[in-house]
Amino acid sequence: MRLLPLIGFLFLFISCKQEEKKLTAQQIIDKTIETAGGDKYDKAKIEFTFRKNKYTSERKNGLYKLTRTINDSLGETYDVLTNSSFERQVDGVKINLPDSLSNLYANSVNSVHYFVQLPYGLNDEAVNKKLVGEAEIKGKKYYEIEVTFAQEGGGVDHEDIYMYWINKDDFTTDYLAYKFYTGKGGIRFREAFNPSVVKGIRFVNYKNYKAEPWENVDMKSLDELFTEGKLALVSEIITEGISVDIIE
């Protein structure tokens, strides 16, 4: 009779392990977004400063408004990106821009908001997610999720490839990497540090590393290169002055 509790425990342990193995890339991303803020993203007004420029985002019922304010010797430049348009104002006057510049500035604004608010955005329609493996970094175990983008809706950099290392215990995104092809191209590997939670939404800063030469580097090997000290630190990416208002 004493064996029954032990057998029950073993059965529960095996069941939990099997359940863990059954997690799909979609389920992992869902848990990660929920851990970081969940539906709070969809009704939040977020403000922050990045590299001396002020950014704000507002989201409600699927609509978004992303802004950037730059103050320099030329005056105040105010960029606004919405679901349907991009507009630039300088000292309160709308500037007519060619499509090439509008797309460039819009992508720049969107990119900053995208990284600051990760993992929100990983369930966009253009995102393709794939569980490609598991890894151990600094004694912690991670899921490796590869993210690619469909051409339609994936933006001007839809050919870029991303990798996310998601903590298997608490479903936080502790590391990410991306391979990009604009300009001369390259690979960046980011280590999250100094996490904070503001009104239920999680934010992190990053240590930004590069791999060189990068052309033949397997994205899945970046965690090993990082652990072995073979990546070069490029910069620290710091988000300051974060404030969040939840709009009910």
Topology:
Elements: H1 3-21, H2 25-36, E1 44-50, E2 53-60, E3 63-72, E4 75-82, E5 86-90, E6 93-95, H3 99-116, E7 127-137, E8 140-149, E9 161-167, E10 173-180, E11 186-198, E12 201-210, H4 222-227, E13 232-237, E14 240-246
Antiparallel strand pairs: 1-2, 1-14, 2-3, 3-4, 4-5, 5-6, 7-8, 8-9, 9-10, 10-11, 11-12, 12-13
What characterizes the major β-sheet?
7 strands, antiparallel
Number of domains: 1
Give the CATH topology: outer membrane lipoprotein receptor (LolB), chain A
Total DSSP helices = 4
CATH class: Mainly Beta
Distance between the termini: 56 Å
- Helical content stands at 10-25%
Q: Give the radius of gyration.
A: 21 Å
Counted beta strands: 14
How would you sum up this structure in a few lines?
The protein has 248 residues and is of the alpha+beta class. 22% of the residues lie in helices and 46% in strands.
Question: What does this protein structure show overall?
Answer:
- The chain is α+β, with helices and mostly antiparallel strands and 248 residues long.
- It has a single domain (25-246), classed as outer membrane lipoprotein receptor (LolB), chain A, CATH 2.50.20.
- Helix content is 22%, strand content 46%.
- It contains four helices and 14 strands.
- The chain has helices at residues 3-21, 25-36, 99-116, 222-227; strands spanning 44-50, 53-60, 63-72, 75-82, 86-90, 93-95, 127-137, 140-149, 161-167, 173-180, 186-198, 201-210, 232-237, 240-246.
- The protein has a seven-stranded antiparallel β-sheet, with helices on one face. It has a seven-stranded antiparallel β-sheet with strand order 7-8-9-10-11-12-13.
- The termini are far apart.
- The relative contact order is 0.14.
- The model has no long low-confidence stretch (mean pLDDT 90).
